[in-house]
Amino acid sequence: MAAEKWVYMVTAQTPTNIAVIKYWGKRDEVRILPVNDSISVTLDPDHLCTVTTVAVSPSFDRDRMWLNGKEISLSGSRYQNCLREIRGRAGDVEDKEKGVKIDKKDWEKLHLHIASHNNFPTAAGLASSAAGFACLVFSLAKLMNVDEDASHLSAIARQGSGSACRSLFGGFVKWEMGSKDDGSDSIAVQLADEKHWNDLVIIIAVVSSRQKETSSTSGMRESVETSLLLQHRAKEVVPKRTLQMEEAIKNKDFASFTQLSCADSNQFHAVCLDTSPPIFYMNDTSHRIISLVEKWNRSEGTPQVAYTFDAGPNAVLIARNRKVAVQLLQGLLYYFPPKSDTDMKSYVVGDNSILKEAGLDGANSVENLQPPPEIKDNIGSQDQKGEVSYFICTKPGRGPVVLPDQTQALLDPETGLPK
Amino acid sequence: MAAEKWVYMVTAQTPTNIAVIKYWGKRDEVRILPVNDSISVTLDPDHLCTVTTVAVSPSFDRDRMWLNGKEISLSGSRYQNCLREIRGRAGDVEDKEKGVKIDKKDWEKLHLHIASHNNFPTAAGLASSAAGFACLVFSLAKLMNVDEDASHLSAIARQGSGSACRSLFGGFVKWEMGSKDDGSDSIAVQLADEKHWNDLVIIIAVVSSRQKETSSTSGMRESVETSLLLQHRAKEVVPKRTLQMEEAIKNKDFASFTQLSCADSNQFHAVCLDTSPPIFYMNDTSHRIISLVEKWNRSEGTPQVAYTFDAGPNAVLIARNRKVAVQLLQGLLYYFPPKSDTDMKSYVVGDNSILKEAGLDGANSVENLQPPPEIKDNIGSQDQKGEVSYFICTKPGRGPVVLPDQTQALLDPETGLPK
């Protein structure tokens, strides 16, 4: 390797994911090893994703990272673990056109620039760290020509953020807790790709919150230390539920999928409540959305919509098909209309072609919505404007990809600094 | 027994109680037998009680009952079970002055008039059925000269409403779940009387709610049928916790009392959340009150206030002594001030002499309250007026008593009809 002034870089896009069988509790805090298996749905990266550009150059004097345009420290152990693991697996790289030649052993001396960007608000509590660490590991693996499959990469991403391991695949993904002390068998595997069950439509209600939330890292530590229900859940409940969920996904059995998703989300929040001091992630708006969905499902006789809530008040609603999703959106907008000065296209984002299907693309169309017929008593007798910040319409999506188009890179190809 | 026109009656007062180790789940729906032991504190009947007058007369042609002035049906099995059990144990009664002589065997033919009144709003979710059934059974036992101790009467009251059995005693009471199929050993026993730990001060926040609540009867049935955590709680968690709570009460160990009360309240609500569909009794206001108490307890190093929530959003806060209660009330009123047109004496009821001690008996005194120093981040940055309907200040109290003063009777001594 000569001391040329080249900058060699790779840009990748990685999806976020939402667990339908929840991860809550580590058996090893350092290696990030969970107390139970978990299962997730990967969300369409067109609507929710992280894009990361990683660059290497002999001219870089230290590792640096920019997250959403702002430089952040890489000194934390989570970043350091991912960087060390990836560097340890780096291969030879040659790009004759650019005059780049990196020998496997050079990676220990070369420095990296990393720029990462989420196409959704980080603060919205939408698992930005999952997509972020998955994208970091995936893009570095491509840059460094790491010869490992996605499951092996998932075990590295896991050391950045547990749920990140599930973002290495599209579709439906299982994180196997593993049994080895070194965590080498605590990896993600794909259960089915995103085409397997492509009727599903996902609507996320980003719920306004005035409560400062407990981080999931400290929350799950406190649950492990104090909840008398967590170990019972991990050992007795989740193993059976995981098998049932795998079957439900395999058979596209929406009734079972819904029953298991809702029960597991509620049980995860039950364990949070059983923690001392108790952790409340859902708020009254979350509860109202659950009531709305439960009533609708009961009135239809067969489940139409599944719900699941992560470590925050946002509702992730999975509709069995597009028609149901349209009705669901109408119901949601009836109960949670936008504030009067809000443009519908900024109140329903992601795949907002659904607005037209729901007849909600015109002016005053929300005011004309009728209450869903199944709701006899008032879930929302009072004005609930402002309880939901916005909705995202999306669907199950693909896993990580390299973005070959240089214009999508977040670093300047000459300087290696953020554009 | 001649067909004279006498009316013979007894008036009694019975307290309500709040569980600190919760009853949630029946193993026998008919006999009302619980899945675990529970422990409660009896609340001072001066502030929260039921008064019941029971009358018998040869002139009555059927059993009748009036609750809070309104005639209600006695045909429900809960009333019928209590009436049958008490009648089966009736003794001879003679009141020479009134010319009353009732032979044991006559009770099967004589009819009863019953009038009952709560000195607190029934709708407030303050265990009115517990005090009500306890008072019904206690007053009938006195009327009919039933020769049974309070524990045996508790087993009858239990068949009206499970938690009613704990209202047969003052102070600290344990409901032993028992093991017999017929429920004869599922009785309440007194752990300590109300004088044992008389430093404690209890402040109840009656929280406004816009949600229709699930009744505890149907809620616990759904939990037994669907929660995968309930049996684990009943079999593995509560037995140990009950022993620890008995010790804490015996030793007046406020730190343990608080830890156990709060953990058990939270776990009961966790089981409700683990029910399908999930049951939410606490709301955002309940959560805010918990955060406030938890922060204060942590900042003091040693617990000052315990909290517990029954099947509703109301907070029952137990302060270690009067001084702490005064500070607690100041903090609560800072975060949850009354609406501007509310008189303080109607916003803090029960023992409202505490208002003067808190310097809150004058005009504008609430506006002058300072935020509690330990609260650094905002629990209540927004206007929370109206979130709490009112507060009740009370303390542990005595068990049932007969009220000999005829002016307190709810039935007319001549007609046997409501006054």
Automatic annotation (TrEMBL), chains A, B:
It catalyses: (R)-5-diphosphomevalonate + ATP = isopentenyl diphosphate + ADP + phosphate + CO2. NCBIfam families: mevDPdecarb. InterPro entries: GHMP_kinase_C_sf, Mev_decarb, Mev_diP_decarb, MVD-like_N, Mvd1_C, Ribosomal_Su5_D2-typ_SF, Ribsml_uS5_D2-typ_fold_subgr. This is Diphosphomevalonate decarboxylase. Residues 15-188 form the Diphosphomevalonate decarboxylase-like N-terminal domain. The keyword Repeat does not apply. Performs the first committed step in the biosynthesis of isoprene-containing compounds such as sterols and terpenoids. The gene is A04p006740.1_BraROA. It is an enzyme of class 4 (lyase). The keyword ATP-binding applies.
